[in-house]
Amino acid sequence: GAVVSQHPSRVICKSGTSVKIECRSLDFQATTMFWYRQFPKQSLMLMATSNEGSKATYEQGVEKDKFLINHASLTLSTLTVTSAHPEDSSFYICSARVGTVLSNQPQHFGDGTRLSIL
Amino acid sequence: GQQVMQIPQYQHVQEGEDFTTYCNSSTTLSNIQWYKQRPGGHPVFLIQLVKSGEVKKQKRLTFQFGEAKKNSSLHITATQTTDVGTYFCAGKGGDSGAGSYQLTFGKGTKLSVIP
Questions:
Q1: Segment B93-103, tens digit of pLDDT
Q2: Most exposed residue of A66, A86, B62, B105, measured as fewest CB within 10 angstroms of its CB?
Q3: What tens digit of pLDDT does each residue of A105-114 get?
Q4: How far apart are CA A78 and CA A72, in angstroms?
């Protein structure tokens, strides 16, 4: 149980393109979803936290107009990287969890999306 | 803000040797979680510790939460090649401030096991 599906797994596109990444919880309802960015040989850097039906909470230094997050249902959250540039190239990974932001439930991670901007 | 430091960054062991990774927080934690990320994979939840001084075991893995709830460790006895991966600790703030709901990940310890 607790499967999180993330698509696409890999994207290569030109600079200036907007890229949408989907994160779905397949067998549970995810009240809270998280978006992380992971640099090579680095840890997971939290970008934003989203709760279904409300605006995402962005971490300091993350541009909300650059990284648009939508959490329209209990099973789907999307991250759109708008007008992507080479410095946005990274591994983006989502996770989903049951419960509110105060919940102690574990996070279940998607397989991640490798984004390469040329 | 809350910082979670994890050491060592890398560990190479001979198969059969033991392995330990340590996690230290700059603030008191309400709980700590451990995740394992296999090469090319995504982090997978291993365990959560909540109580001061708590010790939990999963087969060859032993997890400890410090008395002050600011540090934790993961110990693997007699490592196997299947233990290869990066082990992350993730701590949740213990106060009522802004960090109380955030899960802050350590940088991880990458374990290599030489057969």
A1: 755 444 456 78
A2: A86
A3: 788 999 999 9
A4: 9
Residue A28, pLDDT > 80, answer: yes
Q: What is the CA radius of gyration of chain A?
A: 13
Residue A7 carries which side chain, given as an amino acid letter? H
- Residue A79 and residue A92: Cα distance in Å, rounded? 9
Count of other CB atoms within 10 angstroms of residue B60: 14
H or E element that contains B50: none
Closest partner residue to B43 (CB to CB) among A42, A101, A109 is A109
Choose among B41, B88, B92: nearest Cβ to A43.
B88
Measuring CA to CA, which residue among A113, A115, A109 is closest to residue A25?
A: A109
A25 contacts chain B (CB < 8 A)? no
Taking Cα atoms as reference points, which of A109, A90, A100 lies closest to residue A11? A90
Residues 6+ away with beta carbon under 8 Å from B72: B22, B23, B32, B34, B49, B63, B64, B65, B66, B89, B91
Q: Which of A:73-112 have CB within 8 Å of B?
A: 93, 95, 101-102, 104, 106-112
Pairing of strands B29-37, A4-7: unpaired
Measured distance CA(A33)–CA(A56) in Å, rounded: 9
Q: Which of A34, A108, A110 sits opposite B45 (nearest CB)?
A: A108
Q: Is B82 helix (H, G, I), strand (E, B) or coil?
A: helix
Residues of A with Cβ-Cβ distance to B112 under 8 angstroms: none
Evaluated on CA atoms A104, A110, A114, A117, the torsion sign reads negative
Report how far apart the first and last C-alpha atoms of chain B are (Å, whole number). Answer: 41
